[in-house]
Description:
Blueprint: H1 12-26, H2 32-46, E1 69-76, E2 80-87, E3 92-97, E4 102-119, E5 133-144, E6 149-152, E7 159-176, E8 188-191, E9 202-208
Antiparallel strand pairs: 1-2, 2-7, 3-7, 4-5, 4-6, 4-7, 5-9, 8-9
Helix pairs in contact: 1-2
Amino acid sequence: MHTGIRERELTWAEFTEEVLPEARTLATDASAAGIERYLGVLAASASRVDPASIARPQFSAYPGYPDDVGFALSHRGSPFLGVQFWIEPGAFLPFHPHPGGSVCTLFLEGAARVSNFEFAEPMDALDWEKKGDVLVRRTREQLLHPGDINLVANPRDNIHGFRAGPKGARGIDITTGNRPENRHGDSLLEIAGAPRDATLGVFEAHWRDS
Length: 210
């Protein structure tokens, strides 16, 4: 029964100590259901992390991404990496998929609108080397504030992109390569503003070089 009493907040160090033993076991299950279970455990603990406990690093540009978006590796371990991102006020972190893995995003600072899509065809059937058109399906739109969580599974919600608010946006992606055999290099997507099928939320998208 819900008592209305919130569990104490965790620091990032306490989060990793709490979640790593179970996460290492769950991350070995690369099935869609296994990835969902794994993300559920990460999200349950990450939602208790105090955003202020995660220091603001020095951000650097990443090849292929806009200059008003920066990244910094904050945690390197097994089974996940912690990669912080900073988006300048009003700027956009372009849409990109995570074909070989999953992401639990913990939002830390400012505000952002995140949109999630998934491919309208099986991910294993995609030609990841092509630069052309592909169909995607919009699955989620969420306004993020500090402490909020957004999940990228496999194949569910596997594409995401962020538009920062007027004070910018900072978050940390807890990123896991659940399916190493399906890893591909970074690829960015340009998604049409108007849907091809408004009822099903299907959009045309175009691969672009990163």
